[in-house]
Amino acid sequence: MRRHLPVLVTTVVFLLGFLFCAIQYPNIASTRVVMNLFTDNAFLGILAVGMTFVIISGGIDLSVGSVIAFTTVFLALAIGNWGLSPGMAFVLVLGITALFGAAMGAIIHHFEVPPFIVTLAGMFLARGVAFLMSTESLPIDAALYQEVASFSIHLPGGGRLRIIGMMMLLVFLLGGIVLHYTRFGTNVFALGGGRTTTALMGVRVGRITVAIYMLSSLLAGLAGIVFSFYTASGYSLTGVGVELDTIAAVVIGGTLLSGGAGTMFGTFIGIMIQGLIQTYITFDGSLSSWWIKIVTGLLLFLFIVLQQLLTHLARRATTGAGEKDTQARP
Amino acid sequence: MTFKKLLLATALFTGVTVPALAADMTVGFSQIGSESGWRAAETSVSKTEAEKRGITLKIADAQQKQENQIKAIRSFIAQGVDAIFLAPVVATGWDAVLGEAKDAEIPVILLDRDIETKDPSLYLTAVTSDSVHEGEVAGKWLVDTVAGKACDVVELQGTVGASVATNRKEGFEKGIAGADNVKIIRSQTGEFTRTKGKEVMESFIKAENGGKGICALYAHNDDMALGAIQAIKEAGLKPGTDILVVSIDSVPDIFKAIAEGEANATVELTPNMAGPAFDALIAYKGGTEPPKWLQTESKLYTKDSNPEAQYEARKSLGY
Question: What is the fold, at CATH topology level, of the domain defined by B24-129+271-288?
Answer without folding.
Answer: Rossmann fold (3.40.50)
